[in-house]
User: What shape does this take?
Amino acid sequence: MSQQDPRQREQWSSEPAFVFSMAAAAVGLGNLWRFPYMVGENGGAPFIIAYLLALVVVALPVMMLEVGVGRLAQGSAVHTFRQVHRWGFIFGWAVVLLTVLITSYYLVVTGWTMGYAVNAATVSVSEFDEFTSGYNSIWFFLAVTAIATGILIKGVSAIETFSRWLMPILIIVILILVGIATQVDGFAEARNFMFQADFSLLTSGSLWIFAFGQAFYTLAVGQGYLVTYGSYIPNRTHVPRACIVVAVTETMVALLAGFMIFPYVFTYGFDPGEGSQLAFSTLPRVFEEMTGGAYLAILFFFLFFAAAFSSCLAGLKVVIAAVSEEMKLSHTRAVIAVGVLMLFLGMPSALSFTPVELTVAGMPFLDFVDQFAGTNVVIASGVIGAGLFAWLVPRHRIRESLETTVDYWKWRMVIVGRALPFAAAIFLLWRLVSALV
Assistant: This one.
């Protein structure tokens, strides 16, 4: 596995810069938007237990493996998998395609956060059904895509600056909102929902699929983010330490998001399993009832938009890197081409929350793509990618990529990566036999 000259490629300015940028890439929607609604749809505490186990035991070492190999290859996801095996570029393009699908509806959800931020600034925050009664989903989707395209023309440094300021402020605001949520009537019920588990539910195969999907989604495993962001890591970055900091930050924000939203879900009688619009249905009511809520709504929704927007930038960066390097396009042309592509691919998700109400299999098109690509395909991509890296990249090269003299992480990454494809096959066989019986 050869390594390109890092001087020919942009780099994060430091290890903290990488940590801030990677955390901002996944915190935005993976935790503030997706985690609470996945918890709500999957029974609360049992899902959280399965999610934490999946994250610590499997997702974290796979995250380190992807970042480390990306650092070795110094290229896009397609280039990285080609370096692993001459036919690996096929899977590399599959990973990029998955990121395209996820980013296409990310942009729509980010448009919602922008719309709510604008409405908060004009003191007119509406509930989700009212917000989507017209064509707001389309107009704000178009605006977000255009802004993201403009920022990405500036390159990695723009993402780094954006993320460095975003993360600390966002976490402070979330902590304030959680503190306020502890005072409402539904807090005790929310705490029980999130921490008192019916352990019999842990035998559900579907629960574990959603838990692994969320763990991979939270840490951006299998989506090309880690490989691409890892390729910009500067020398002397301790990969295990950086990844652990990101994982702890992600987990903390995810759990805080649950404590921020579920107390109000139970206080005002909302359905925890409402789906992708859970946060947007709950929070407007929260700010309406709260003293000084109008001002806090402005701050929160603008930060929510900023966090969601950082996730979009990360996804677009993965696609742009592949298109630019593989198709020999200049950076600017690649950014514009990807931006135009997203306008077409994101439109069906935007239309699903308009009077058109575009649906697939009885659910909004956006929800269908999220549950299909954001769970099943993400798991498959992460498992296959980890298997390729762990079996085909020499172990001494994996150790070199980590910038650590401790072999523990190398062996854990290799063992997990090599075992995952077989474990997944056994799990699928068990699911098939259970369905037949």
Observations:
- The longest helix spans residues 88-121.
- The CA atoms of residues 57 and 94 lie 25 Å apart.
- The first strand starts at residue 359 and ends at 360.
- The chain has a mean pLDDT of 85.
